[in-house]
Specification:
Elements: E1 8-16, E2 24-30, H1 35-46, E3 54-58, E4 61-64, E5 75-76, E6 92-97, E7 103-114, E8 123-128, H2 138-150, H3 157-164, H4 175-186
Parallel strand pairs: 4-5
Antiparallel strand pairs: 1-2, 1-7, 2-8, 3-4, 3-6, 6-7
Helix pairs in contact: 1-4, 2-3
Length: 197
């Protein structure tokens, strides 16, 4: 069993690829976390609803879940910890969510920090812009959606508002709500009691 002093915390930036203005989150996660746990952090910090399949692409290898797809031919994400990945600043890998809309996220390890036993992990430090709605049609569908809802004269303005069903502000992110949800989901996790492989 490892001691708290031997655990590291990864500061990671999670950005949705090919979207402007950028949508991203900066999180702190312990390196004893598995990829399936990181999937939960991404879903909650970005604002996705976990309705669709996902996978990680790391150095040419696919990591995913067998829970929804028993024929998945990638590696089981529950078997891979962040500590098994290259942890140099600038190291990148990818997370794809919803193979139809194909939301590709770029994950960059920004720095490795000391584990603080009295701090709660994971935590979202900063968030920029709202998450796109589920099933909006990927990057291009999202651009059309934002154009339509922001322009009352747009021919699809009313249709898009009805489809979404509530007010959508592309700039608004509730960081406090993100962290409250992360605390609720990861309460009781003992990162320091895990063995780094």
């Amino acid at each position: 069993m490892m001691t708290a002093a031997s655990i590291a915390v990864v500061q990671m930036k999670i950005s949705i690829a090919d979207i402007r203005p950028p949508i991203w989150r900066r999180v702190l996660v312990p390196n004893t976390m598995t990829l399936d746990e990181l999937h939960v952090v991404i879903q909650e910090s970005m604002g996705w609803e976990d309705y669709h399949l996902h996978e990680f692409m790391i150095d040419g290898t696919r990591y995913g879940t067998l829970e929804w797809d028993e024929t998945y031919d990638g590696v089981d994400e529950t078997k891979m910890r962040l500590s098994n990945l290259v942890q140099d600043p600038g190291y990148k890998f990818h997370y794809i969510y919803d193979f139809g809309d194909y939301w590709q996220h770029v994950l960059v390890m920004e720095q490795l920090l000391p584990f603080e036993p009295d701090s709660f992990y994971p935590v979202c430090l900063k968030a920029k812009r709202a998450c796109p709605p589920e099933d909006v049609g990927g990057v291009w569908g999202y651009a059309d959606f934002v154009s339509a809802i922001q322009d009352p004269k747009h021919p699809e303005h009313r249709e898009m508002l009805t489809w979404y069903g509530e007010v959508y502000d592309p700039e608004f992110v509730d960081l406090e709500a993100i962290n409250a949800q992360l605390r609720a989901l990861f309460r009781g996790k003992r990162w320091s009691q895990r063995t780094v492989r």
